[in-house]
Write a structure and sequence with these properties.
By secondary structure, the protein is an all-alpha fold. It has one domain. The chain has 7 helices and no strands.
Length: 116
């Protein structure tokens, strides 16, 4: 599944950056970008899961989940077509959310942006 591959790639990259920072810059003061990368990791993974849900119909969502509330939430938040690259980058690196939170998925970001 694509979701697993994206998550594994992002986690390996984040772990590599943490190890690199620990080995090479452990005694120096510097800017730590791994905090921002952790939030970006959750956003990219959440986007990927919502995009994968966009290819599933409501019947397959019902088969994989036992909670009706979860099924309706997945159905509302699914992404059926990819946004433009600019919209995706804007979602991942939206300044107020990347530094202090809160975390929200692409559906909420799109609703906030378009005011729907």
């Amino acid at each position: 599944m694509l979701t697993d591959k994206v998550f594994i790639f992002n986690m390996v990259y984040l772990i590599t950056m943490n190890i690199r920072r620990y080995v090479y810059y452990s005694e120096e003061w510097g800017v730590d970008i791994t905090n921002v990368m952790m939030i970006a990791l959750t956003k990219i993974t959440s986007f990927n899961i919502s995009y994968q849900d966009g290819f599933r119909d409501l019947d397959s969502l019902i088969k994989t989940s036992s909670e009706t509330e979860d099924i309706m939430d997945q159905n509302i938040r699914k992404i059926s077509e990819l946004p433009s690259l600019l919209d995706f980058i804007e979602y991942v690196y939206f300044f107020p959310a990347i530094l202090v939170g809160p975390f929200y998925d692409y559906h909420d970001f799109r609703s906030m942006k378009t005011r729907k």
